[in-house]
Design a protein that fits this description.
The protein is mainly alpha-helical. It contains 16 helices and no strands. It starts with a helix and ends with a helix. The mean pLDDT is 90.
């Protein structure tokens, strides 16, 4: 068979695989929307669903104009003008397709970018003005997130494990984004939550936490399973190509790594869910479905960094510890009076940071060489497997620089929005609910019916406060 024909077939199959993975990652937006809607009170359901749509549409424009260029606009790391800190070309997809990238690659990376904004939106739910979502979503997906993606995922990035100049001889292994995606979104949400402060009524006059559980457990469970489904594009899809044979083997290639990655993802999430189920049972005295859902997601977040380079048994360890990280951070958040309606900071931040450290401890040398085939015969791998300090050192550096970068960019942005009076809604509007005070109606017919026969209970509270 003609070599060019074989290459064309391989390119077509790889493109189909990448596009299918992009579609799966995009399904996660629906999962986020359902999870967020079920996790807030009924009077804010319409608002949170609208913000999820906005994250997608605003993120599309900002990532098209600037984000992809800042993340991947380099010369493949082989030229002197490649920048290790920021991309400098492909703005508005100019010169795409190129030697290294096609439209399908842009679409896949775009699906990642809009997921970051969804994480942040959950942290500041139920008390944020809609205009603030437009601002931070554009800035986060168009600038803050792409810079971190360039550091770790661009071949010229200073943290990239495929770079020609490896940090500590290793580079940071963050295969699908425990740090690049989840930690970035979580730290942004952390600063938004801190600057806005807790929701009205979240803590009583004595500082004791008041439960504000979401209004629809069905949507939370549905969102969790949709996210689980999408994660099979998020993690295995990050291989980009499926028809890549591994050297020195006759029957293994990226298809083997893709299958293993799907398995490690499943095992980590499942283990975290089981541990959360029994852990919370011991702490609160009953079985809690919503806590289990967050536990499952915490396991997925943690394994996302090392999913391609660890054994299945290690994924179980990852999920086990991720569950306790989440449980512990939630207890700490209550003690510190930190209010994140979706536990996004604790889940995506705490479990994301643990996932990076986990990779530095458990990455297997054989898998590292297969996935990051840079032509060297040896490179650092998991510390607990005898791989030295190079990889774990790079992982710690990634945790620190992500926290620092997002803090110095998103923290001031939220502070400026706060000073301008366009970040948080008024107390009266918050009590009434964002749906009626900002969006002209409710998400559910029973509240509309209540309004038809007289003001809804939320609106009555709103009017009463204004008259007092």
């Amino acid at each position: 068979m003609d070599v060019s024909w074989e290459q064309s077939v391989a390119d077509s199959i790889n493109t189909i695989y990448l596009l299918f993975s992009a579609y799966l990652v995009f399904v996660m937006q629906l999962g986020f929307a359902m999870l967020c809607a079920g996790s807030v009170r009924a009077k804010n359901a319409l608002n949170i669903m609208l913000t999820n749509v906005v994250d997608a549409v605003v993120g599309s424009i900002s990532y098209f104009l600037f984000g992809f260029a800042f993340a991947f606009g380099d010369d493949g790391g082989s030229h002197s003008n490649s920048n290790p800190f920021i991309g400098t070309k492909f703005f508005a997809l100019k010169d795409i397709p190129s030697e290294n990238f096609d439209y399908s690659y842009f679409l896949y990376q775009w699906a990642f970018a809009i997921a970051v904004a969804g994480i942040t939106s959950g942290s500041i739910a139920e008390r944020t003005q809609f205009s603030a979502y437009l601002v931070f979503s554009f800035f986060l997906t168009g600038f803050v997130y792409p810079i971190v993606a360039h550091w770790v995922w661009s071949s010229s990035g200073w943290l990239c494990p495929s770079s020609s100049s490896l940090l500590f001889g290793s580079g940071a292994i963050d295969f699908a984004g425990s740090g690049v995606v989840h930690l970035v979104g979580a730290i942004a949400g952390f600063w938004g939550s801190i600057i806005e402060g807790p929701r009205v009524g979240r803590f009583d006059a004595f500082g004791k936490a008041v439960s504000m559980r979401g209004h629809n457990a069905t949507l939370v469970v549905l969102g969790t399973f949709l996210l689980w489904f999408g994660w099979f594009g998020f993690n295995p899809g990050s291989f980009d190509k499926i028809l890549v044979p591994y050297p020195n083997t006759s029957n293994q290639g990226n298809w083997t790594g893709i299958g293993r990655t799907a398995v490690t993802t499943t095992l980590a999430g499942s283990t975290a869910g089981i541990v959360t189920l029994f852990g919370r049972r011991l702490l609160i005295g009953h079985w809690d479905a919503l806590d289990v859902c967050n536990g499952v997601l915490g396991g997925f977040v943690a394994i996302t960094s090392g999913c391609s380079v660890v054994e299945p048994w290690a994924a179980i360890v990852c999920g086990f510890i991720a569950a306790w990280v989440l449980i512990g951070l939630n207890i700490l958040a209550v003690k510190l009076k930190f209010d994140d309606p979706l536990e996004a900071t604790q889940l995506h931040g705490g479990c994301g940071a643990w996932g990076l450290i986990f990779t530095g401890l458990f990455a297997k040398e054989e898998f590292v060489l297969q996935v990051y085939n840079t032509g060297v015969s040896r490179r650092p791998y998991g510390l607990l497997l005898g791989g030295g300090w190079g990889l774990i050192g790079a992982q710690v550096v990634e945790v620190l620089v992500v926290i620092g970068w997002v803090s110095i960019t998103m923290g001031p942005l939220f502070l400026v929005l706060h000073k301008l009076g366009i970040l948080r809604i008024s107390i009266e509007e918050e009590i009434a609910g964002l749906d009626i005070s900002r969006h002209g109606g409710y998400a559910y017919n029973d509240l509309h019916e209540e309004s038809r026969h007289g003001p809804s209970r939320y609106y009555r509270d709103y009017v009463q406060l204004q008259n007092d």
